[in-house]
Specification:
This protein is α+β, with helices and mostly antiparallel strands. The protein is built from 23 helices and 12 strands. It has helices at residues 21-28, 38-50, 64-72, 75-78, 92-96, 103-113, 135-146, 151-159, 167-184, 188-203, 205-209, 223-247, 266-275, 285-292, 305-319, 335-361, 366-380, 387-402, 448-469, 486-497, 514-525, 533-549, 553-565; strands spanning 82-83, 89-90, 149-150, 251-253, 258-261, 406-409, 412-413, 419-421, 430-433, 437-444, 474-481, 509-513. The longest helix is centred in the middle third of the chain and has 27 residues, at 335-361.
């Protein structure tokens, strides 16, 4: 490896979601035993396209080999899930992480082995001697010790920690940072910006003084651009670290936007912090690979059958609040079967909690209405570490609240009802069943040209596939985005008018901005009147009527928008 030169923690930001990794590895199985050369990379990309696997506009890459490397040679390689030389091999952890029952355990073990420096990530001259840290271990410790980290604090103090010996100093710095903000009444976002710009300037003062400030992919040199780039890098890495850490299930971002240890996982975290070595040891390539590929290291609390049985009994107790649970003994069952049982019971509990929450949403509680509106504002301001996830979850809450339909969200929540992962790429974000017809809802935070490239084909396919699956049942869609790109409006307008054989007719989507959808939600909740099936169906009828009578796509969009905002 060429090494890394940053003076803060670094980790690949791709794939952005750890939950995507098993899909990429599963697709790679057909290439095992081959050389990871340009031909294999191009063919792997083609396989991604045919399987609709991709975080971006899959199928439109100008450099397919680079897109393939982006999914395999970044996080999967860094975490010891694949070996690419001399030939492609999915390691034992790479095989096991594809088992959904033990995904979180395998991810946790691999993250705890990741260290800086290492044979995969050696220091360069620019940062020689700065690093002695296992990033995920110390970030987990920081969340546990501080207890209520904001996302900006996680970035500013977690990502900039480079030696575990400085951990206590880092905690003190957080206390000083909070004290300064409180005493001077500084807005959190401004405080973070000013603090980090100053921090980065000091961190790279030698580079700035010597005018060694060229930024990759730019021709000109500018200290301002250099500092801003490093500032942004800390945020990008921080977001990646947080996504993977929350992927373990040990950490969550709660509704107060605080990074905290997940409820009921304190004992798992304490076990890790007390038993995993903090030292980033010096390894040869062979020694480090042996460590990475060892599925038994490090030991977790969940490796103990006794602890697994304890967790399952606790889950049974919670499940008994919703249904009758038979008393049974779990003694003598293998660890893998116990983990499968735990996963299935957690999944069942998650569904029951969500169903109960959905029922409570339909009661039109004013505090819940205000919370939905407030959450939309936070999403627009991009206050969450995963704004697309919160947009899915909050839109589901809003639709569930305002009508009588059976509304299902494809996102995943935990047993406390907190959203933890977005919908899989091959399903609609939200599906509403209204008896005689369906309405799907697709949401996105993408904008500009990327919105058209990313969303046009998938949302149309999701609607068409659902209609085909349900034998032609009338189905239409709602599309909610931060902003609506004009090409998207044009495409949705023409799809109202031009039938397709593939999807059995026209495909109708109504595009609305987050602002407009929030206004629509606010309007229909003001007097406590709940929309019924006829109200929802009339929206569909109107959008078809306006498409046939409108002068053009802009006229159609304005008419349907005005109609919905007048309800």
């Amino acid at each position: 490896m060429a090494g890394f030169s940053s003076r803060y923690m670094t980790m690949s930001t791709s794939p952005r979601s750890p939950q995507r990794v098993p899909y990429y590895l599963s697709l790679l199985e057909q290439f095992e035993g081959k050389e990871w050369n340009n031909e294999a990379q191009v063919n792997y990309y083609k396989a991604m396209v045919s399987n609709q696997l991709g975080d971006f506009s899959i199928g439109k890459s100008k450099h397919p080999e680079m897109s393939a490397r982006d999914k395999i040679t970044r996080a999967p390689k860094a975490l010891g899930l694949v070996e690419l030389k001399p030939r492609i091999r999915i390691t034992e952890p790479g095989k096991q992480i594809q088992n959904k029952y033990i995904f979180q355990d395998v991810l946790t073990k691999q993250l705890l082995k990741y260290q800086l420096p290492s044979p995969l990530f050696p220091e360069r001259q620019d940062n020689k001697g700065m690093f002695n840290i296992k990033p995920y271990l110390e970030l987990l410790r920081l969340v546990y010790i501080v207890g209520d980290l904001s996302r900006s604090e996680f970035y500013a103090f977690g990502v900039t920690m480079t030696d575990y010996h400085d951990f206590d100093k880092t905690v003190e710095r957080i206390k000083e940072y909070r004290k300064e903000a409180k005493q001077n009444h500084i807005h959190a976002r401004k405080h973070y910006h000013d603090y980090m710009m100053k921090y980065v300037s000091n961190l790279y003062s030698d580079k700035i003084e010597s005018d060694d400030v060229k930024v990759r992919e730019t021709k000109s040199k500018s200290s301002e651009k250099f500092i801003k780039t490093k500032f942004n890098n800390v945020g990008d890495y921080g977001n990646a670290f947080l996504r993977y850490l929350t992927g373990t299930g040990l950490v969550v971002v709660n509704k107060k936007l605080q990074v905290v240890v997940a409820p009921n996982r304190e004992d798992d975290v304490e076990y890790i912090l007390n038993n995993v070595s903090r030292e980033a040891k010096k390894y040869s390539n062979t020694e480090y690979n042996k460590l990475l590929f060892d599925v038994n290291y490090p030991k977790l609390l969940s490796d103990s059958p006794r602890e697994l049985i304890k967790k399952i009994n606790q889950l049974d107790a919670r499940l008994s609040e919703y249904k009758d649970v038979a008393n049974r003994s779990y003694e003598g069952i293998s660890s893998l079967e116990l983990k499968k049982l735990q996963y299935e019971k957690e999944d069942e509990l998650d569904q029951l909690v969500r169903e109960q929450y959905a029922k409570s949403l339909k009661s039109y509680d004013n505090k819940e209405v205000e919370d939905v509106l407030d959450t939309f504002q936070h999403i627009k301001s991009q206050d969450y570490f995963d704004n697309p996830l919160y947009l899915e979850w909050n839109t589901w809450r809003a639709i569930t609240m305002i009508d009588n339909g059976n509304i299902k969200g494809s996102f995943k929540t935990n047993s406390n009802g907190d959203p933890i992962n977005t919908a899989p790429g091959n399903t609609a974000d939200i599906v509403g069943d209204y008896g005689d017809f369906n309405m799907i809802c697709e949401v996105t935070m993408s904008s500009g040209k990327k919105q058209y490239e990313m969303e046009n084909e998938p949302v149309t396919r999701h609607l068409g596939e659902l209609r085909t699956k349900e034998n032609g049942k009338e189905t239409f869609g709602l599309f909610v985005a931060k902003t609506i790109q004009p090409n998207v409006i044009t495409e949705f307008y023409y799809k109202h008018l031009i039938p397709t054989k593939l999807y059995g007719g026209t495909v109708e989507f109504i595009p609305l901005t987050i602002d407009d959808f929030a206004k629509f939600f606010k309007n229909v909740t003001q007097d406590g009147h709940k929309l019924n099936e006829d109200d929802i169906h009339k929206i569909h009828s109107k959008t078809i009527e306006y498409a046939k009578s409108a002068d053009d796509e802009a006229d159609w969009y304005n008419k349907i928008r005005d109609y919905m905002l007048s309800m």
